[in-house]
C-alpha cells in the first residue's frame, strides 16, 4: 500500500455533535481508518517522523496512510483553527474514522508504537461494534462505537 499526499482540496468542513470538524472530503474513498501526518518542510522534527511514517503501510493493513504538507497547504491549518481538531503543531498525527477526525496520536514517534496504537484502536472499535451488535434486538442495525475523542465515528 502506498501513501496518499493530500492538499487543501482533500478536506472539507462538516458539523458534528461536538462542533465543526475538518474531514476528509471524499469519505467514501477512506472507509475505516486513515492516519494523516501533517508536516512542514521547515520543521526539524518532521524528517525523522516522515521516515518512520513511510514504513507503516508495509506493516499495517486495513488503514489508509496520508500526508499533508502544511507548508504548501496553509489554508488547511487556517481552516482547522475553529474545529474540534485544530492543527497547532507539526508533526501531527490524526486518526480519521470514515473520513472524520477521531483521535490525535501523541505517543512515541516509533514505528512499533504507532503500529500498536493503530491495532489497539482498531480492536477497540471492532469489539465495541461487535458488542453493540450482540446487544441489539434481532432486526436492529448495529450502532457505531461511542468513543469520545474528537468525534464519534460516523456511520458509513
Summarize the structure.
With 156 residues, the protein is of the alpha/beta class. 26% of the residues lie in helices and 27% in strands.
Largest β-sheet summary: 5 strands, mixed
- Distance from first to last alpha carbon: 22 Å
* Percentage of residues assigned to helices: 25-40%
- CATH superfamily, by name, is Glutaredoxin
Strand content: 25-35%
The overall number of domains is 1
DSSP summary: helix tally: 3
Q: According to CATH, what is the class?
A: Alpha Beta
CATH architecture: 3-Layer(aba) Sandwich
- Total beta strands: 7
User: Might you state the CATH topology name?
Assistant: Glutaredoxin
The arrangement of helices and strands along the chain is EEEEHEHEEH
Which descriptor suits the 3D outline?
Answer: globular
Structural class by secondary-structure content: alpha/beta
| Rg calc | 16 Å
Can you tell me about this structure?
By secondary structure, the chain is an alpha/beta fold. The protein has a single domain (3-135), classed as Glutaredoxin. Helices cover 26% and strands 27% of the residues. The strands form two sheets. The chain has a five-stranded mixed beta sheet with strand order 1-5-4-6-7, covered by helices on one side. It has a two-stranded antiparallel ribbon with strand order 2-3. A hairpin with a 2-residue loop joins strand 6 (92-97) and strand 7. The protein is globular and about 35 Å long. It starts with a strand and ends in a 21-residue tail after the last helix. 31% of the residues are buried. The model is unreliable at 133-149 and 151-156 (pLDDT under 50).
Amino acid at each position: 500500500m502506498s501513501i496518499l499526499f493530500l492538499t487543501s482540496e482533500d478536506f472539507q468542513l462538516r458539523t458534528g455533535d461536538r462542533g465543526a470538524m475538518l474531514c476528509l472530503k471524499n469519505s467514501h474513498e477512506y472507509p475505516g481508518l486513515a492516519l494523516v501526518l501533517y508536516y512542514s518542510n521547515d520543521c526539524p522534527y518532521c524528517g525523522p517522523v516522515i521516515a518512520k511514517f513511510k514504513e507503516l503501510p508495509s506493516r499495517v493493513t486495513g488503514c489508509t496512510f496520508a500526508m499533508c504538507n502544511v507548508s504548501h497547504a496553509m489554508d488547511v491549518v487556517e481552516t482547522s483553527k475553529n474545529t474540534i481538531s485544530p492543527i497547532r503543531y507539526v508533526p501531527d498525527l490524526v486518526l480519521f474514522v470514515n473520513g472524520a477526525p477521531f483521535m490525535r496520536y501523541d505517543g512515541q514517534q516509533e514505528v512499533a508504537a504507532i503500529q500498536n496504537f493503530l491495532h489497539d484502536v482498531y480492536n477497540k472499535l471492532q469489539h465495541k461494534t461487535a458488542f453493540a451488535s450482540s446487544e441489539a434486538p434481532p432486526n436492529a442495525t448495529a450502532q457505531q462505537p461511542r468513543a469520545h475523542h474528537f468525534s464519534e465515528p460516523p456511520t458509513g
